[in-house]
Amino acid sequence: MTLASFALILTGVLLNAAAQLLLKAGTNALGVITPTVANALPLAGSIATSPHFLGGFACYGVSVLVWILALSRVPVSIAYPMLSIGYVVNALAAGYLFDEALTGGRWFGIGFIIIGVVLLARS
Fold first, then answer.
1. In angstroms, rounded to a whole number, what is the distance separating the alpha carbons of residues 37 and 24?
2. Which of 5, 16, 60, 101 has its CA 20 to 30 A from that of 90?
3. Domain housing 83
4. Over 80: is that where the pLDDT of 52 sits?
């Protein structure tokens, strides 16, 4: 895998991770979402006008375009498992941004993911 191909994959993964974090920030601002017929329109309006949700949707859109570029250069059997880098990024960012716990088991899993990604990138 070339450096340019890896950069495309990493960019797509980071945009996807940013989308997840923005969506989480949006849900934190709204609180627990319980859709009903009565609140469907106000809920949709809140989501459609929230900067966090809009930013998350934009990151998803751009990540799809970047991912298509990456898939045109790298076999899907290599590229797709690289998405697991997003788990690492999100776990670390969620710990920092949202005070989510990074337990020993999570660190252990993160280590396995990193080892797997390195092995894939070198294959």
1. 23
2. 5
3. 3-122
4. yes
